[in-house]
Amino acid sequence: AEKTDVVVIGAGLAGLNAALLLAENGCRVTVLEAGRRIGGRVFTSTEIEGSPEHGASQIGRSYARVLDRCEALGVKLAQGSNIYDNYAISLDGQLIRPGQWENHPLNKTVGAERGVVPFALGSYYLAKTYPWNTMDGWASPEALANYDVSEADYLRRVGASSAAIDLVARGYGDGDLDAISALTLMQEMGRAKFEGKGVPTSAKQDRFQQASFLSYRILGGSSRLTDAMADALKGAVLTGKQVTAIDMTETGATVTCGDGSSYKADYVISALPFTALRKVAVTPALTGGQADAVKLMPYSGQNQVWLRVKAPYWEQDGIEGSMWTDGPVSMLRQSIAPDGSRDSAVAITSGVKGDALDRIPAKERGEYVLSELARMRPSTKGKLEVLGVFSWKLDPLIHGCRHGYHPGQMKAFRPTMAQPHARMHFAGEHTRLMEVGMESAMETGERAALEILDRI
Ligand SMILES: Cc1cc2nc3c(=O)[nH]c(=O)nc-3n(C[C@H](O)[C@H](O)[C@H](O)COP(=O)(O)OP(=O)(O)OC[C@H]3O[C@@H](n4cnc5c(N)ncnc54)[C@H](O)[C@@H]3O)c2cc1C
After folding, report:
1. Could you report the predicted ipTM of this complex, rounded to two decimals?
2. What is the pTM of this model?
């Protein structure tokens, strides 16, 4: 077996950033990636016309690590597409303009809630009641002790009406707010509240508008960044290496791949989502809350149907092109390019509704989604064409789009799940503390690299 100082498992942003930092600090590093493609959840499609982004696309203005790497590697940025335009509402089979919502007969919410569109209600309550004045307050012992309750319980606690809670549940696409820890959502909110500071918001704005501080995108697609990071590692990234076992002793670690090859190192970084790590045999075995986290942490999916807009259906019915729905498709999202063109859209579905779509064979899924969109919004009939489909739950290596916690799991998992275990360290967006999205993956790669540099 080849020997290096550190083997990093997984060539997503977290693994690549860890490997680059270690290499920049004089370590010999090998990165093992199961797929033939670099980047994980950074994935610019090469199959679908227009090269849409299956994963990360929007880069926040405060993503210091991402922006820094882009600059250092010559990866060019451009202004992000606008995905935050107003969303129409399709509820109980009726099509409603966001401006009509407050006084609409289907709006059964009460008091100040009435002015908040259904898909913004969850974040409206979270932003209003976020109990801490720090970004990582959600991770404090006090938070773990008192707030690791279901989102439904939390919303009741802060006075949301049952009609509002029902709408929030429909918005998540899985309908089960009892299964989501409120702290999962507060983790996002902690960051968003501070990132959005200074941007005036009002309850009349939807979630997307409230978060619509300007963003960047990568010219040529997000994969340009992860490809450039891998290139900078000069041959240290090996693809087609699906890790199946990590064996550690007092003096070193051996990492074995499905193709029979093995790699020796002093230390190992797992930059795998827990959905993937749970399939790897680790010796000595993980224990306690850490073992439970790897085995049980839930990941939600996301189903995408990419569409060409053949004619402006929004001009026919005079309603916003994007639409939130309580039907079998979570949302129709139109992205408005910086030049104002609106010729593509994506139907995105998450939660159990996404799982239901996953069960429809890929060839039929797109047409099914088109027929459901036409039922909810007749003006789309004949004006949309399927370009391709993709599902993160069906991705054979990642098995999901993002991690979450059931009530009680944050308390059980957080204290130990990212702690070093023997010679193994943990990175990946699920182990993040302060950041969100791509920046969170970078943050965790940095932490794991620094932990190892401290030990050498
Ligand atoms: C639909 C979607 C939209 C998003 N949009 C945005 C956005 O607009 N802005 C933003 O900032 N963030 C966004 N994100 C979040 C961002 O993409 C992630 O936070 C980040 O890419 C996660 O990186 P990671 O390195 O933690 O994990 P991953 O990217 O999942 O990397 C894990 C890697 O491990 C590999 N692997 C799995 N099993 C094995 C094995 N046994 N052996 C070796 N390798 C293995 C995988 O193939 C993968 O390459 C989005 C994510 C999704 C899914």
Report:
1. 1.00
2. 0.95
